[in-house]
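forwarding from the other thread:

> can someone predict this with copper (II) ion?

sure thing
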Amino acid sequence: MPDHDILFRNARLIDGTGRPSEIGDLAVSGNRIAAIGDLGGASAGQVIDADGMALSPGFIDSHCHDDRAILDMPLLEPKVSQGVTTVINGNCGVSIAPVLPDRPDAPPPLNLFVGEDYRHFPDFNAYFSALEKTPSAVNSACLCGHSNLRHAVMDRLDRAATSEEIAQMCGLLEQALNDGAIGLSTGLYYPPATAAPTEEVIEISKTLANHGGLYVTHMRNEEDNVIQSLEETFRIGRDAGVPVVVSHHKCVSQPNHGKSKITLAMIDEARKHQSVSLDAYPYAASSTILQPERVAKCARVMITWSDVMPEASGRDLSDIAAEMGCSDEEAAKRLLPGGAVYFQMSEDDVQRILSYPDTMIGSDGIVQDKHPHPRAWGTFPRVLGHYARDEGLFPLETAVHKMTALTARTFGLKDRGILQVGGFADLVLFDPDTIIDVADFANPCRAAKGIDKVFTNGICTWANGQATGARPGQPLRRG
Ligand code: ZN
Ligand code: CU
Protein backbone atom coordinates (compact mmCIF):
# COMPACT_ATOMS: atom_id res chain seq x y z
CA MET A 1 0.00 0.00 0.00
CA PRO A 2 1.46 3.40 -0.95
CA ASP A 3 1.57 6.08 1.78
CA HIS A 4 -0.64 8.56 -0.09
CA ASP A 5 -3.04 8.85 -3.00
CA ILE A 6 -1.27 11.71 -4.77
CA LEU A 7 2.22 13.14 -4.36
CA PHE A 8 3.34 16.37 -6.04
CA ARG A 9 7.14 16.55 -6.25
CA ASN A 10 9.24 19.74 -6.40
CA ALA A 11 6.37 22.15 -6.81
CA ARG A 12 6.60 25.88 -6.19
CA LEU A 13 4.21 25.89 -3.23
CA ILE A 14 2.17 29.12 -3.05
CA ASP A 15 0.27 28.50 0.16
CA GLY A 16 -2.43 31.19 -0.10
CA THR A 17 -1.33 33.23 2.93
CA GLY A 18 0.59 35.67 0.75
CA ARG A 19 4.02 34.70 2.07
CA PRO A 20 6.85 33.91 -0.37
CA SER A 21 6.59 30.56 -2.14
CA GLU A 22 8.93 27.63 -1.47
CA ILE A 23 9.90 24.58 -3.46
CA GLY A 24 8.60 21.40 -1.85
CA ASP A 25 6.43 18.29 -2.04
CA LEU A 26 2.77 17.94 -1.12
CA ALA A 27 0.85 14.72 -0.46
CA VAL A 28 -2.89 14.09 -0.62
CA SER A 29 -4.72 11.26 1.14
CA GLY A 30 -8.44 11.01 0.45
CA ASN A 31 -9.93 14.50 0.35
CA ARG A 32 -7.29 16.13 2.57
CA ILE A 33 -3.72 17.39 2.37
CA ALA A 34 -1.70 14.77 4.29
CA ALA A 35 1.84 16.18 4.29
CA ILE A 36 3.90 19.12 3.02
CA GLY A 37 7.68 19.51 2.87
CA ASP A 38 10.53 17.29 1.72
CA LEU A 39 8.69 13.99 1.28
CA GLY A 40 11.60 12.15 -0.36
CA GLY A 41 10.83 8.80 1.25
CA ALA A 42 7.07 8.81 0.69
CA SER A 43 5.18 6.78 -1.90
CA ALA A 44 1.85 7.44 -3.59
CA GLY A 45 -0.61 5.91 -6.05
CA GLN A 46 -0.03 8.85 -8.39
CA VAL A 47 3.23 10.81 -8.39
CA ILE A 48 3.18 14.12 -10.27
CA ASP A 49 6.46 15.74 -11.26
CA ALA A 50 5.66 19.40 -10.60
CA ASP A 51 9.09 20.80 -11.44
CA GLY A 52 8.71 24.39 -12.69
CA MET A 53 5.03 24.46 -11.80
CA ALA A 54 3.17 26.35 -9.10
CA LEU A 55 0.85 24.48 -6.73
CA SER A 56 -1.68 26.59 -4.84
CA PRO A 57 -5.02 26.23 -3.09
CA GLY A 58 -7.95 25.96 -5.51
CA PHE A 59 -9.33 29.37 -6.43
CA ILE A 60 -12.46 30.57 -4.68
CA ASP A 61 -14.68 32.72 -6.89
CA SER A 62 -16.02 35.25 -4.38
CA HIS A 63 -18.83 36.58 -6.58
CA CYS A 64 -20.91 34.17 -8.67
CA HIS A 65 -24.30 33.63 -10.21
CA ASP A 66 -23.75 29.90 -10.76
CA ASP A 67 -26.67 28.85 -8.52
CA ARG A 68 -28.36 27.08 -11.41
CA ALA A 69 -25.33 26.43 -13.62
CA ILE A 70 -23.78 24.00 -11.12
CA LEU A 71 -26.90 21.83 -11.54
CA ASP A 72 -27.41 22.29 -15.30
CA MET A 73 -23.76 22.17 -16.38
CA PRO A 74 -22.16 20.46 -13.37
CA LEU A 75 -18.67 20.24 -14.86
CA LEU A 76 -18.69 24.06 -14.95
CA GLU A 77 -15.84 24.26 -17.50
CA PRO A 78 -15.77 28.09 -17.63
CA LYS A 79 -14.72 28.19 -13.98
CA VAL A 80 -12.89 24.87 -13.50
CA SER A 81 -10.68 25.62 -16.52
CA GLN A 82 -9.47 28.71 -14.61
CA GLY A 83 -8.57 26.71 -11.49
CA VAL A 84 -11.74 27.45 -9.54
CA THR A 85 -12.73 24.82 -6.96
CA THR A 86 -15.32 26.79 -4.94
CA VAL A 87 -17.97 29.34 -5.98
CA ILE A 88 -19.92 31.78 -3.78
CA ASN A 89 -23.43 32.03 -5.24
CA GLY A 90 -26.63 33.96 -4.57
CA ASN A 91 -25.18 37.43 -5.21
CA CYS A 92 -26.70 40.80 -6.14
CA GLY A 93 -29.96 40.15 -4.27
CA VAL A 94 -30.89 37.10 -6.34
CA SER A 95 -30.59 33.45 -5.31
CA ILE A 96 -32.16 30.23 -6.58
CA ALA A 97 -33.88 29.79 -3.18
CA PRO A 98 -36.15 30.64 -1.56
CA VAL A 99 -38.61 31.14 -4.40
CA LEU A 100 -42.22 30.31 -3.87
CA PRO A 101 -43.54 27.97 -6.58
CA ASP A 102 -46.79 29.88 -7.10
CA ARG A 103 -44.97 33.05 -8.22
CA PRO A 104 -42.85 32.34 -11.28
CA ASP A 105 -43.57 35.88 -12.63
CA ALA A 106 -40.36 37.36 -11.29
CA PRO A 107 -39.17 40.70 -12.76
CA PRO A 108 -35.51 40.93 -13.89
CA PRO A 109 -32.97 40.20 -12.58
CA LEU A 110 -35.06 37.94 -10.32
CA ASN A 111 -35.62 35.75 -13.36
CA LEU A 112 -31.87 35.08 -13.65
CA PHE A 113 -32.47 31.37 -13.16
CA VAL A 114 -35.24 31.07 -15.71
CA GLY A 115 -33.91 28.99 -18.57
CA GLU A 116 -35.45 26.17 -20.60
CA ASP A 117 -37.69 25.71 -17.61
CA TYR A 118 -38.25 27.79 -14.51
CA ARG A 119 -36.03 26.31 -11.86
CA HIS A 120 -36.57 27.21 -8.27
CA PHE A 121 -36.38 25.77 -4.80
CA PRO A 122 -38.78 26.61 -1.99
CA ASP A 123 -35.91 26.63 0.51
CA PHE A 124 -32.16 26.12 0.79
CA ASN A 125 -32.54 22.66 2.22
CA ALA A 126 -34.20 21.51 -1.01
CA TYR A 127 -31.47 23.23 -3.04
CA PHE A 128 -28.55 21.76 -1.10
CA SER A 129 -30.19 18.31 -1.20
CA ALA A 130 -30.43 18.58 -5.00
CA LEU A 131 -26.73 19.49 -5.10
CA GLU A 132 -25.85 16.49 -2.96
CA LYS A 133 -27.86 14.20 -5.23
CA THR A 134 -26.34 15.58 -8.46
CA PRO A 135 -23.01 17.10 -7.43
CA SER A 136 -20.93 19.56 -9.40
CA ALA A 137 -17.18 19.69 -10.02
CA VAL A 138 -16.94 22.63 -7.61
CA ASN A 139 -17.85 23.29 -4.00
CA SER A 140 -20.42 26.01 -3.49
CA ALA A 141 -21.67 28.26 -0.74
CA CYS A 142 -24.75 30.40 -1.21
CA LEU A 143 -26.16 33.71 -0.03
CA CYS A 144 -29.87 34.36 0.33
CA GLY A 145 -31.15 37.10 -1.99
CA HIS A 146 -32.99 40.08 -0.48
CA SER A 147 -34.97 40.48 -3.73
CA ASN A 148 -36.17 36.88 -3.37
CA LEU A 149 -37.44 37.69 0.11
CA ARG A 150 -39.27 40.78 -1.13
CA HIS A 151 -40.79 38.87 -4.03
CA ALA A 152 -41.91 36.11 -1.67
CA VAL A 153 -43.81 38.30 0.79
CA MET A 154 -44.82 41.49 -1.06
CA ASP A 155 -47.65 42.05 -3.54
CA ARG A 156 -45.65 44.73 -5.38
CA LEU A 157 -41.96 45.62 -5.28
CA ASP A 158 -42.08 49.37 -6.02
CA ARG A 159 -42.55 50.34 -2.39
CA ALA A 160 -40.96 49.90 1.03
CA ALA A 161 -41.88 46.76 2.98
CA THR A 162 -44.25 47.12 5.93
CA SER A 163 -43.07 46.05 9.38
CA GLU A 164 -45.20 42.94 9.01
CA GLU A 165 -43.53 42.08 5.71
CA ILE A 166 -40.12 42.74 7.22
CA ALA A 167 -40.93 40.27 9.98
CA GLN A 168 -41.89 37.68 7.37
CA MET A 169 -38.65 38.29 5.47
CA CYS A 170 -36.67 37.86 8.70
CA GLY A 171 -38.43 34.52 9.19
CA LEU A 172 -37.49 33.34 5.69
CA LEU A 173 -33.90 34.53 6.14
CA GLU A 174 -33.68 32.75 9.49
CA GLN A 175 -34.77 29.53 7.82
CA ALA A 176 -32.27 30.07 4.99
CA LEU A 177 -29.44 30.53 7.51
CA ASN A 178 -30.53 27.47 9.47
CA ASP A 179 -30.52 25.49 6.22
CA GLY A 180 -26.92 26.59 5.56
CA ALA A 181 -27.00 29.86 3.59
CA ILE A 182 -23.96 31.96 4.58
CA GLY A 183 -25.57 35.39 4.57
CA LEU A 184 -27.78 37.91 2.80
CA SER A 185 -27.11 39.60 -0.52
CA THR A 186 -28.80 42.76 -1.78
CA GLY A 187 -29.10 44.27 -5.23
CA LEU A 188 -30.30 47.73 -4.21
CA TYR A 189 -29.39 48.97 -7.69
CA TYR A 190 -31.98 46.71 -9.33
CA PRO A 191 -35.72 47.39 -9.78
CA PRO A 192 -36.96 44.66 -7.37
CA ALA A 193 -35.09 46.38 -4.51
CA THR A 194 -34.56 50.07 -5.36
CA ALA A 195 -37.64 51.01 -3.33
CA ALA A 196 -36.26 49.32 -0.22
CA PRO A 197 -35.12 52.02 2.23
CA THR A 198 -31.92 51.58 4.24
CA GLU A 199 -33.98 50.91 7.37
CA GLU A 200 -35.67 47.90 5.75
CA VAL A 201 -32.28 46.39 4.92
CA ILE A 202 -30.97 47.08 8.44
CA GLU A 203 -33.97 45.38 10.07
CA ILE A 204 -33.62 42.28 7.90
CA SER A 205 -29.84 42.19 8.37
CA LYS A 206 -30.22 42.06 12.15
CA THR A 207 -31.28 38.43 11.63
CA LEU A 208 -27.76 37.77 10.34
CA ALA A 209 -26.08 38.92 13.52
CA ASN A 210 -27.28 35.97 15.63
CA HIS A 211 -26.12 33.45 13.02
CA GLY A 212 -22.69 34.74 12.06
CA GLY A 213 -24.01 35.58 8.58
CA LEU A 214 -22.61 38.35 6.42
CA TYR A 215 -24.12 41.15 4.39
CA VAL A 216 -23.01 41.26 0.75
CA THR A 217 -24.16 44.05 -1.52
CA HIS A 218 -24.42 45.20 -5.08
CA MET A 219 -24.75 48.76 -3.87
CA ARG A 220 -27.57 51.14 -4.70
CA ASN A 221 -25.26 53.20 -6.88
CA GLU A 222 -21.79 52.68 -8.37
CA GLU A 223 -21.81 55.94 -10.34
CA ASP A 224 -22.39 59.53 -9.19
CA ASN A 225 -23.52 58.36 -5.74
CA VAL A 226 -20.90 55.68 -5.13
CA ILE A 227 -19.68 57.52 -2.04
CA GLN A 228 -23.19 57.83 -0.53
CA SER A 229 -23.78 54.16 -1.33
CA LEU A 230 -20.62 53.15 0.52
CA GLU A 231 -21.80 55.18 3.51
CA GLU A 232 -25.15 53.40 3.36
CA THR A 233 -23.39 50.03 3.27
CA PHE A 234 -21.23 50.90 6.30
CA ARG A 235 -24.32 52.07 8.18
CA ILE A 236 -26.18 48.82 7.46
CA GLY A 237 -23.18 46.89 8.81
CA ARG A 238 -22.90 49.05 11.93
CA ASP A 239 -26.61 49.23 12.79
CA ALA A 240 -27.22 45.52 12.16
CA GLY A 241 -23.92 44.51 13.77
CA VAL A 242 -22.72 42.42 10.81
CA PRO A 243 -19.67 42.23 8.52
CA VAL A 244 -20.26 43.74 5.06
CA VAL A 245 -18.84 42.85 1.65
CA VAL A 246 -18.97 45.39 -1.20
CA SER A 247 -19.49 43.40 -4.41
CA HIS A 248 -17.59 44.10 -7.64
CA HIS A 249 -16.39 47.50 -6.43
CA LYS A 250 -16.07 50.02 -9.25
CA CYS A 251 -16.56 53.68 -10.16
CA VAL A 252 -18.80 53.79 -13.19
CA SER A 253 -18.96 56.45 -15.96
CA GLN A 254 -16.46 59.13 -16.88
CA PRO A 255 -17.24 61.86 -14.28
CA ASN A 256 -16.57 59.30 -11.53
CA HIS A 257 -13.28 58.00 -12.82
CA GLY A 258 -10.59 58.40 -10.15
CA LYS A 259 -13.06 58.23 -7.27
CA SER A 260 -11.58 54.90 -6.16
CA LYS A 261 -8.91 56.99 -4.39
CA ILE A 262 -11.70 58.30 -2.17
CA THR A 263 -13.69 55.06 -1.85
CA LEU A 264 -10.66 52.97 -0.85
CA ALA A 265 -9.66 55.58 1.74
CA MET A 266 -13.22 55.42 3.10
CA ILE A 267 -13.02 51.63 3.32
CA ASP A 268 -9.67 51.92 5.12
CA GLU A 269 -11.18 54.32 7.63
CA ALA A 270 -14.34 52.24 8.17
CA ARG A 271 -12.26 49.11 8.76
CA LYS A 272 -10.89 50.67 11.92
CA HIS A 273 -14.37 50.34 13.45
CA GLN A 274 -16.20 47.54 11.60
CA SER A 275 -15.66 44.59 9.28
CA VAL A 276 -15.66 45.67 5.61
CA SER A 277 -14.54 43.54 2.66
CA LEU A 278 -14.73 43.96 -1.11
CA ASP A 279 -14.23 42.10 -4.33
CA ALA A 280 -13.50 43.06 -7.92
CA TYR A 281 -13.09 41.56 -11.38
CA PRO A 282 -10.07 42.42 -13.58
CA TYR A 283 -11.79 44.26 -16.46
CA ALA A 284 -12.75 47.87 -17.24
CA ALA A 285 -16.15 46.80 -18.61
CA SER A 286 -19.16 45.57 -16.66
CA SER A 287 -22.10 43.40 -17.68
CA THR A 288 -25.70 43.07 -16.58
CA ILE A 289 -29.24 43.34 -17.93
CA LEU A 290 -29.80 45.65 -20.91
CA GLN A 291 -30.93 49.09 -19.68
CA PRO A 292 -31.63 51.64 -22.46
CA GLU A 293 -31.23 54.62 -20.11
CA ARG A 294 -27.66 53.56 -19.42
CA VAL A 295 -26.23 53.36 -22.94
CA ALA A 296 -25.67 57.11 -23.42
CA LYS A 297 -23.10 57.08 -20.60
CA CYS A 298 -20.95 54.35 -22.16
CA ALA A 299 -18.03 54.53 -24.56
CA ARG A 300 -19.28 51.26 -26.09
CA VAL A 301 -22.07 48.75 -25.46
CA MET A 302 -21.99 45.12 -26.61
CA ILE A 303 -25.11 42.94 -26.57
CA THR A 304 -24.72 39.61 -24.71
CA TRP A 305 -28.24 38.33 -25.37
CA SER A 306 -31.63 39.48 -26.63
CA ASP A 307 -34.85 37.50 -26.58
CA VAL A 308 -36.37 39.26 -29.59
CA MET A 309 -33.15 39.32 -31.66
CA PRO A 310 -30.91 36.37 -30.69
CA GLU A 311 -28.53 37.18 -33.57
CA ALA A 312 -27.58 40.43 -31.75
CA SER A 313 -25.41 38.40 -29.32
CA GLY A 314 -21.82 39.57 -29.46
CA ARG A 315 -22.54 42.64 -31.63
CA ASP A 316 -22.01 46.30 -30.79
CA LEU A 317 -25.22 48.19 -30.06
CA SER A 318 -24.15 51.15 -32.23
CA ASP A 319 -23.84 48.87 -35.30
CA ILE A 320 -27.29 47.45 -34.67
CA ALA A 321 -28.69 50.97 -34.18
CA ALA A 322 -27.13 52.11 -37.48
CA GLU A 323 -28.84 49.22 -39.29
CA MET A 324 -32.13 50.03 -37.63
CA GLY A 325 -31.69 53.73 -38.45
CA CYS A 326 -32.37 54.82 -34.88
CA SER A 327 -30.55 56.01 -31.77
CA ASP A 328 -28.58 53.59 -29.60
CA GLU A 329 -31.10 54.06 -26.82
CA GLU A 330 -34.03 53.29 -29.14
CA ALA A 331 -32.22 50.19 -30.45
CA ALA A 332 -31.65 49.03 -26.89
CA LYS A 333 -35.38 49.41 -26.19
CA ARG A 334 -36.21 47.26 -29.21
CA LEU A 335 -33.84 44.49 -28.04
CA LEU A 336 -35.44 44.11 -24.61
CA PRO A 337 -35.34 41.91 -22.66
CA GLY A 338 -31.62 41.40 -23.01
CA GLY A 339 -28.16 41.65 -21.53
CA ALA A 340 -25.14 43.84 -22.33
CA VAL A 341 -21.48 44.58 -21.67
CA TYR A 342 -20.90 48.25 -20.77
CA PHE A 343 -17.48 49.84 -21.34
CA GLN A 344 -17.54 52.60 -18.73
CA MET A 345 -14.74 52.19 -16.15
CA SER A 346 -11.21 53.53 -16.08
CA GLU A 347 -8.24 51.16 -16.13
CA ASP A 348 -6.59 53.20 -13.36
CA ASP A 349 -9.53 52.55 -11.02
CA VAL A 350 -9.56 48.86 -11.92
CA GLN A 351 -5.85 48.55 -11.08
CA ARG A 352 -6.11 50.62 -7.91
CA ILE A 353 -9.01 48.53 -6.61
CA LEU A 354 -7.37 45.21 -7.54
CA SER A 355 -4.19 46.33 -5.74
CA TYR A 356 -5.96 47.20 -2.49
CA PRO A 357 -4.65 44.56 -0.05
CA ASP A 358 -8.07 43.30 1.03
CA THR A 359 -9.71 43.06 -2.40
CA MET A 360 -10.83 39.53 -3.23
CA ILE A 361 -11.14 38.34 -6.82
CA GLY A 362 -14.65 37.49 -7.98
CA SER A 363 -15.70 36.91 -11.60
CA ASP A 364 -19.37 37.97 -11.56
CA GLY A 365 -19.55 35.95 -14.81
CA ILE A 366 -22.81 34.67 -16.23
CA VAL A 367 -21.61 31.33 -17.60
CA GLN A 368 -24.87 30.40 -19.32
CA ASP A 369 -24.92 33.55 -21.54
CA LYS A 370 -24.41 32.74 -25.22
CA HIS A 371 -21.86 35.53 -25.63
CA PRO A 372 -20.84 36.36 -22.06
CA HIS A 373 -18.46 38.95 -20.68
CA PRO A 374 -15.01 37.24 -20.92
CA ARG A 375 -14.68 37.37 -17.11
CA ALA A 376 -16.73 34.15 -17.07
CA TRP A 377 -13.72 32.28 -18.54
CA GLY A 378 -10.74 34.54 -17.86
CA THR A 379 -10.86 36.26 -14.47
CA PHE A 380 -8.34 34.25 -12.42
CA PRO A 381 -5.66 33.60 -15.08
CA ARG A 382 -5.96 37.29 -16.06
CA VAL A 383 -5.13 38.42 -12.52
CA LEU A 384 -2.24 35.94 -12.26
CA GLY A 385 -0.81 36.31 -15.77
CA HIS A 386 -1.72 39.79 -16.97
CA TYR A 387 -1.89 41.85 -13.78
CA ALA A 388 0.59 40.08 -11.46
CA ARG A 389 3.24 38.75 -13.86
CA ASP A 390 3.07 41.02 -16.92
CA GLU A 391 1.96 44.32 -15.36
CA GLY A 392 3.76 43.70 -12.05
CA LEU A 393 0.81 45.04 -10.07
CA PHE A 394 1.62 42.73 -7.15
CA PRO A 395 3.59 39.51 -6.52
CA LEU A 396 2.12 36.19 -7.65
CA GLU A 397 1.78 35.18 -3.99
CA THR A 398 -0.44 38.22 -3.36
CA ALA A 399 -2.56 37.42 -6.40
CA VAL A 400 -3.11 33.86 -5.12
CA HIS A 401 -3.94 35.18 -1.64
CA LYS A 402 -6.71 37.35 -3.11
CA MET A 403 -8.38 34.29 -4.63
CA THR A 404 -7.81 31.76 -1.84
CA ALA A 405 -7.09 32.37 1.88
CA LEU A 406 -8.49 35.91 1.95
CA THR A 407 -11.77 34.74 0.43
CA ALA A 408 -12.03 31.63 2.63
CA ARG A 409 -11.51 33.75 5.73
CA THR A 410 -14.02 36.42 4.68
CA PHE A 411 -16.77 33.90 3.94
CA GLY A 412 -15.92 31.54 6.81
CA LEU A 413 -15.02 28.52 4.64
CA LYS A 414 -13.35 26.17 7.08
CA ASP A 415 -10.16 24.30 6.13
CA ARG A 416 -10.05 25.80 2.65
CA GLY A 417 -7.95 28.43 0.90
CA ILE A 418 -4.57 27.51 2.47
CA LEU A 419 -2.08 24.74 1.77
CA GLN A 420 -1.92 23.15 5.19
CA VAL A 421 -1.85 19.62 6.56
CA GLY A 422 -5.41 18.57 7.37
CA GLY A 423 -6.96 21.12 5.00
CA PHE A 424 -9.16 20.03 2.11
CA ALA A 425 -7.22 19.08 -1.00
CA ASP A 426 -8.63 21.81 -3.28
CA LEU A 427 -5.59 22.43 -5.49
CA VAL A 428 -4.44 24.05 -8.73
CA LEU A 429 -1.26 23.14 -10.55
CA PHE A 430 -0.34 25.89 -13.01
CA ASP A 431 2.57 27.22 -15.00
CA PRO A 432 3.44 30.66 -13.59
CA ASP A 433 5.40 31.56 -16.74
CA THR A 434 2.61 30.90 -19.24
CA ILE A 435 -0.67 31.30 -17.36
CA ILE A 436 -2.90 33.81 -19.17
CA ASP A 437 -6.54 34.44 -20.05
CA VAL A 438 -7.43 33.82 -23.68
CA ALA A 439 -11.11 34.79 -23.58
CA ASP A 440 -11.73 38.31 -24.90
CA PHE A 441 -14.78 40.38 -25.79
CA ALA A 442 -14.87 39.03 -29.35
CA ASN A 443 -14.33 35.40 -28.33
CA PRO A 444 -15.34 35.11 -24.68
CA CYS A 445 -15.78 31.32 -24.35
CA ARG A 446 -12.18 30.16 -24.44
CA ALA A 447 -10.32 28.26 -21.75
CA ALA A 448 -7.25 29.98 -20.30
CA LYS A 449 -3.68 28.80 -20.94
CA GLY A 450 -1.35 27.47 -18.27
CA ILE A 451 -3.76 25.61 -15.96
CA ASP A 452 -2.34 22.08 -15.81
CA LYS A 453 -4.50 20.25 -13.27
CA VAL A 454 -7.29 21.12 -10.86
CA PHE A 455 -8.39 19.07 -7.85
CA THR A 456 -11.52 19.49 -5.75
CA ASN A 457 -11.61 17.55 -2.47
CA GLY A 458 -8.66 15.45 -3.66
CA ILE A 459 -10.28 14.46 -6.99
CA CYS A 460 -8.98 15.71 -10.34
CA THR A 461 -11.60 17.81 -12.19
CA TRP A 462 -9.43 19.28 -14.97
CA ALA A 463 -6.41 17.81 -16.82
CA ASN A 464 -4.98 17.83 -20.35
CA GLY A 465 -7.03 20.88 -21.25
CA GLN A 466 -10.40 19.37 -20.44
CA ALA A 467 -12.82 18.45 -17.68
CA THR A 468 -12.25 14.94 -16.37
CA GLY A 469 -15.96 14.36 -15.77
CA ALA A 470 -15.48 14.00 -12.00
CA ARG A 471 -17.97 15.86 -9.79
CA PRO A 472 -16.49 15.86 -6.28
CA GLY A 473 -17.91 19.27 -5.25
CA GLN A 474 -19.89 19.71 -2.06
CA PRO A 475 -22.39 22.29 -0.95
CA LEU A 476 -20.68 24.22 1.84
CA ARG A 477 -23.38 24.87 4.41
CA ARG A 478 -22.79 27.57 6.99
CA GLY A 479 -21.23 26.28 10.21
ZN1 ZN B 1 -24.00 42.81 -9.06
CU1 CU C 1 -23.31 39.98 -9.57
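The chain has two domains: 58-284+348-411, 285-344. thats all i got for now
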